[in-house]
Every structure is written in C-alpha cells, then in structure tokens.
Write a structure and sequence with these properties.
The complex is a heterodimer of chains A (712) and B (64). Chain A is mainly α and 712 residues long. Helices cover 65% and strands 3% of the residues of chain A. Chain A has 27 helices and four strands. In chain A, the strands form two sheets. A two-stranded antiparallel sheet of chain A has the order 1-4. Chain B has a domain of 32 residues. The chains are: A mainly alpha (712), B mainly alpha (64).
Chain lengths: 712, 64
C-alpha cells in the first residue's frame, strides 16, 4: 500500500499540557486554602466567597476536571494520534474542545464561590454549565472517534479501548445525574429526591472516579509507561481480561449497599465477594504496569519520569485495595464520614493521578519542543518532595479518621457516650489537620518546581507544531480477513462494534442499579407526618446549599447506638422524599444535623451563625455575617414552589401564589421569637430563612412518634 | 437504609444474581479466548506504541 505522509498536531498537546499545569497549581492552591481554613477559619478573611463550604467544591472540581481533565486530553491527544498513525480528525474540533473546556473551568471558578451549586458532589456546576459540558464532551468524542475511524493502524491498542470506554461512560453518567429542572439562570433542582437522588448521585460519583480518574489514566499508563521504559507492556492478554472485567464490575460494584443489603444472607456474602472481586481487575492493571519494568529497575533509580510512574501505579494499587476494604460493612461503619475517606481520595488523586500526570508531562514536553528536559535534578527533587507531601497528607488523615471514628463510637463503663460533645473529637485531631496542610505545601512546592522546570525546558526548545510522520494507508479489504480473526481480535479492528459492546457492558451495570432505583421510589415507605418544606424553609434550605453547609455537616443518622445516642432517632428513607437535592453529606467536619430541629432555641442559631465560637468555644466553623445583611429575593420563591410542584412535591394547587404570604407570616414569628431574646432582625433577612430550615430538620417524625406512642 | 426499602421490592434479589451470571460467563469466555491467542499477534500488538518511527529522540532521561 502507498505510504502516506501526514503530521501529528502537537500544538493541541502543548495547549492541554499548559492548561494541566496551570489548573493543577490553581486546584492545589485552593485545596491548600481549604486545608488551612479547617483549623483556622479566619483564613477566609470574612469574605463569603472564600469560606470552606464555597471553595471545597471549587477544589474538587479543579482537581478532577481542570487538572486531571486537561491531563487526560493532553495524554489522549498525544497518544491517540500516534497509536492510530493519523492526525486528529479535525483541528477545528480540537480547538473548540480546548477552549470550550477552559471556558467551563472559568465558569466553575466564578459560579462555585458565588454559591451557585447543586450540592451534588463532583456535579455541583449548575445547569447552563452542565449543558456546555455535554456539548464539549460530545465534541471530544467526535474528534476522538473520527480519528480512530481514519486510522492507518488496523488494530486498536489497549489504551484506545480505555479512551472509548471513558468517553461513553462519562457521557452516560453526566447526562443521567444532571437531569435537573431549572428555576432561574443559575439555580435548578434535581428531578430525583431523597433516597433516589442519593442512589443516582453515588452511582455517578463512584463511577466518575472509575471512568474519569481511572480508566483514562489506565489508558495513559498503557501508552506512556512503555514509551518511557522503551519496552512493551508485560502482558497484552492480561490487559484484555482486566479491561473488560474492570469496566463491567466498576460500574456497579461501586454503590455496594444498593446491591447486597436487601439480599438474603447467602447473597450478601456473594455481594461482598463482588466488591472484593473488583480488586482483581484493578490489580491486573497495576501488575501489568509494574511488571513492564521487570529487569529495568536500575533505570527507575536514575530516571525521574519512571519514578513518578512507578509511584503512581503503586498508589493506584493501594487505593484500589483500600477502596474495596472500605466497602466492607464493618470497616465502613468506622470509616464513613471520617478523614479516612479523605486520605483514600488523596492517595488516588495525589499519587495515581498527580504523579502519572507529572511523569507524562516531563516525558512529552521535551519531545514536542525538540529539546531535553531543563533539569533532571529538579525533576528528581519534585519527585521526592511530592512523595513526602503524599505521606504527610495521608498518614495524618488516617490517624485523624480512625481516632475520630473511634471517639464517636466510644461508650464509658456506665453506658454513656465518652465524648458526647462533637467538638471534643474535632479538637483532638487539629494537629493532624495542620500536618496535612504541611503535606499539601510540600506537594504544591513540588508542582511549582515542575512548572518552573517545564517553562525553562520550553524556552530552550522550539515547538514542533506539526510533527511529520509516515505510514502506509490502511487497506480495509485485505487486513484481517485471515483465518484466525475472531473474538476480541475481531473486535479490536472494529471501533464501532467495540464501542457498542463497551457501552452495553457499562449499561448492564447501570440497568442492574437503575431498575431498583426507580422501583425504590415507589417502594420508599411513606411516613404520613412528613410534609413538604414551607416556602421560608425552602429558601433557608437553598441558603444552606449555597453556603455549602452540606460539605461539613451530614444529615444521615445511621442505625448505630453511638449515633442515636448522640443525634436522635436514626434516619428513615421516608423522611427525605421531598429533598431535592438530598443532603446526606459524606463528611462530618461538624456534627450531623438531621435532627437539629428544635434542639436549640432560635436565638442560639442566630448567635451561632454570627459567631460560632460564641456558642461553641473552640469551634472551627467560620462566621457568616452576610446572612444578617442580605435579604431573600422573594420574587423567586413562587417559582421555586412551582418547580417543586412540577417535581411532584404535593403543595396545594395554586400555592405558589400565596407562598410569599406564608413566608412572611412564618418569618415574622421567628422575628418575634428572637426579639424575646433581645435580638432585633428584619424578617426578610437570610438568617431568618436559614433558622426556619434548621428548626424544621428531623422534626416531622418526632411529631409522628409522640402521636404513635408505644411503637418504635 | 437501602435494605429497608429494597426488601419491599419484590423479586429484587434476582437482579444482582443475573449480573453475577453475566459477568462470570463473559469472564470465562474472554479468558479462554485470550489464552488461545496467537503469540506472534500478541507481541505485535503489544509493540504498537513502540514501532511508530518517531522522528524525535527516544533516548531515556537519566541522571548520569
């Protein structure tokens, strides 16, 4: 066949590489600010846009979508062209993809500190940005699949399968989890509520980890590790098995509670086996990566790129062992809501994603700029200080998580809680929070030296914007009509069929989870005393979401005696049927609030929000003075009621027209209640709405219990 | 919490068992196919990243 000459687009790789580094620094910096705020809340300098609750989602979104996201595209655009022996399908789509993605990030950086959040983790961005994400993601997919279809290399290397699976699954996850009803330009409510919302959210959340943080990076590993080591992957056969096992299992082994808690005992054991089974395909990938270096470990000693990659793959193995362990009920009973979860996340984020990104950057920047890395010594320094950073991050967080988890559960000899004051358990781990922040400083320092090293490297070279290449044109007829082409080999040459099958594999998992999810909604036991939120409480709830209160406070009391003693009756599914979105939370930096209603007088909440330390000495919660200045825009309130009605919340017909009247009536009651404690406040202020919401929490079934005395 | 709800859904137990059955049958089938792959082809595919005739220096980076 005739040899064709073409060129690889390195400009787009350079652009994504620079974006990766820029947003990496930004994301780490925001994380560092958050880490300092946890033990010194005044770090936000009284600015509402900088509180922990507002910037925590900025940090997670920046780390996942801005840093890792651009890292994915950097690696995919470099490797896909060369694996396909073809230039990207469309230079225009490449540019739209790049600028579109950066636009999304800038929108996130503006909207999230402003409190425009859906409260759904790693999906906080509001509906206009969600639409933009879908559009840009599809453009990425078209560009990628178009390149695959015009390839000159018949066989799709394993990395490409991971890229395809990533694209398809993330599209599915994003669309399903982002189904929301807009109320205003930057406010919407999810169509799901309560338990159903929780299931959808964590199907999305765990699989965002799987298909945004893992599968694309496994693809990058399968390309860049062999390139850096100059040897082929250890076992191609293993890569086939572990790919299909991974994408099938991951998608539904994630929300394990869904699957095995309702089953008879023998099936529960099976369910636990499932979660543990996921270790196998994950470790298949890890072993394939590490064993690629068998016999070449002396080079790892000298080459910082290989060092980064080895630690990355090892961190991947650690995190994918730890995850299934943490999904075991008895382990999860201790770890849930603690910093152990945070430690686990950051082993993956700092070790696997961060370090693999750095390894890839150090490898490909000199190449596309036709020069040598400016300083190998500095790259080695980056490696060591980054590794120290990971250690100083993770070990204090493990210590803190286990300490606090045990303290929450501790009973004294008389049968009472040993540490009944939640704050006691927080103060105990403050030193650990400081050490973690120090770990973050180390890691960020390493990243900054990396940026410096890259800048010097770039300046010493010249970009090969269009790298010439040659390959024979692909003859669709003669290739692969040989006799033994069946099964997976047949599949690898046919990207469309491959994509369909990959999608079916992940969709089966989706169906296994979703059928119960939809059945669940009609199977949530109704509690007759649970009523919709009043207009005032609804506005207060939206303020709670805006301030990111759910990032520190959970609303989910588990059926353990240590929790019912501390917080009250454990949470029932029927209590959450009108919660659009659900606010169960995933971390207790502060105490659970599910039954905070009527525990303290209105005046307590007023003073506590103004200055938490006035009510709880030593508290790490920041002040919220703006809640006392800002007023609620009640012209939007009827729209919110109408939206809730559309979503099925049973307000009376036409209630949106009287909603503001009820709002003011209830607000005036709170105002009067506060004035008996010598507190004067205008009933339109945001603090009144927030107090109303907090005082409502968990009270519905208290009413029911007194009404049904004698029953559980 | 999910247990209380899911127990109400009749016949729910069958779903994860179907999933398990699909997984194991596919896993076994794929493993058998993989073991039977032709060795030369396997080596060729594993080397795809390395046989790209890169014009840029492929030398390793090391500290002397």
């Amino acid at each position: 066949m005739a040899v064709e000459t073409f060129s690889y687009d390195n400009r787009i790789v350079r652009n994504f590489a620079f974006a990766t580094l820029l947003w990496g620094i930004v994301g780490m910096l925001v994380g560092l600010i958050a880490a300092f705020e946890i033990f010194e809340p005044s770090v936000n300098m009284g600015i509402q846009y900088l509180t922990f609750g507002r910037i925590r989602p900025l940090h997670t979104n920046a780390a996942i979508f801005a840093f890792v996201g651009n890292g994915i595209f950097m690696g995919v655009y470099y490797s896909l062209q060369r694996l396909c022996k073809a230039r990207m399908f469309s230079d225009l789509l490449s540019k739209i993809h790049f600028w579109g993605w950066q636009t999304i990030i800038v929108l996130a950086a503006i909207t999230l500190p402003m409190g425009m959040s859906s409260a759904k983790e790693y999906a906080e961005l509001e509906w206009p940005v969600d639409i933009l994400i879908a559009i840009i993601w599809i453009i990425f997919g078209i560009n990628m699949l178009g390149t695959i279809l015009k390839r000159r290399e018949r066989h799709m290397y394993v990395a490409i399968w991971f890229y395809i699976a990533t694209f398809l699954t993330v599209a599915m996850l994003h669309v399903v989890n982002s189904l929301e009803l807009p109320v205003t330009l930057f406010k919407s409510y999810p169509i799901y509520a309560g338990v159903q919302d929780a299931l959808v959210q964590w199907w999305y959340g765990h699989n965002a980890v799987a298909f945004f943080l893992t599968t694309p990076y496994l693809g990058l590993m399968y390309y860049f590790l062999p390139k850096a080591a100059n040897r082929p992957v250890f076992s191609y056969r293993l890569s086939i098995i572990h790919f299909w096992a991974l994408i099938f299992l991951y998608i539904w082994a994630g929300p394990h509670h869904l699957l095995y808690n309702a089953l008879p005992d023998w099936a529960q054991s099976l369910g636990m086996v499932f979660s543990l089974m996921l270790i196998a395909p994950s470790w298949g990938g890890m072993l394939n990566g590490l064993l690629t270096l068998r016999g070449a470990w002396d080079r790892v000693r000298q080459d910082p790129i290989l060092k980064f990659m080895v630690v990355a793959v090892t961190a991947y193995g650690m995190a994918t062992f730890e995850g299934p362990m943490m999904s075991i009920k008895s382990v999860n009973a201790l770890s849930h809501f603690t910093d152990w979860t945070i430690a686990h996340v950051h082993i993956g984020a700092l070790g696997w994603n961060g370090f693999l990104t750095f390894g890839v950057v150090y490898w490909l920047i000199p190449r596309i700029f036709n020069t040598k890395l400016h300083s190998v010594k500095l790259a080695n320094f980056h490696f060591w200080i980054g590794t120290l950073g990971i250690i100083f991050y993770a070990i204090p967080m493990y210590w803190a998580g286990i300490t606090q988890g045990l303290m929450w559960k501790q009973f004294n000899a008389d049968g009472y809680l040993q540490y009944p004051i939640f704050l006691e358990t927080v103060l105990q781990i403050i030193p650990m929070y400081m050490l973690r922040a120090f770990g973050g400083v180390l890691y960020l320092t390493g990243a900054l030296t990396g940026v410096y090293n890259v800048i010097k490297t770039v300046r010493s070279g010249k970009l090969i914007a269009n790298e010439p290449a040659q390959a024979p044109a692909l003859d669709l007829k003669t290739a692969d009509t040989a006799k033994n082409v069946y099964g997976h080999r047949w599949l690898e040459s046919r990207p469309v069929q491959f994509s369909v099958l990959a999608f079916i594999a992940v969709a089966i998992g989706g169906v296994v989870e979703f059928v119960p999810t939809f059945l669940v909604q009609s199977n949530v036991p109704t509690i007759s005393s649970v009523k919709p939120y009043t207009p005032l409480e609804l506005e207060g709830r939206d303020i709670y979401v805006r301030e990111g209160c759910n990032t520190c406070h959970s609303q989910q009391i588990r059926p353990f005696r240590s929790e019912t003693e501390r917080y009250g009756e454990y949470s029932k599914p029927g209590e959450f049927v009108y919660d659009h979105p659900f606010l169960w939370g995933s971390k207790r930096i502060g105490p659970d609030l599910q039954r905070i209603g009527k525990k303290y007088p209105d005046a307590w909440h007023y003073n506590h929000m103004k200055d938490p330390r006035s009510m709880s000495p030593g508290s790490i919660m920041p002040r919220y003075p703006w809640l006392f200045e800002q007023t609620v825009d009640t012209t939007v309130t009827p729209k919110k009621i109408a939206a809730m009605q559309t979503l099925g919340v049973p307000y009376p017909t036409g209630y949106d027209r009287v909603a503001v009247k009820d709002y003011l009536t209830q607000a005036k009651q709170i105002k009067e209640d506060l004035s008996t404690s010598n507190i004067q406040v205008d009933e339109n202020k945001e603090i009144v709405a927030l107090i109303a919401y907090l005082q409502r929490l968990g009270t519905d079934i208290k009413m029911d219990r007194t009404a049904r005395a004698g029953t559980q | 919490m999910y247990k209380a709800i899911l127990q109400n859904v009749s016949g729910i137990e069958i779903l994860p068992i179907i999933g398990l059955a699909i997984f194991f049958s596919l896993f076994t089938a794929i493993t058998i196919w993989v073991v039977r792959l032709d060795k030369k082809e396997v080596n060729r595919m594993a080397n795809i990243p390395l046989d790209d005739n890169e014009l840029i220096n492929n030398g390793d980076v090391s500290d002397g």
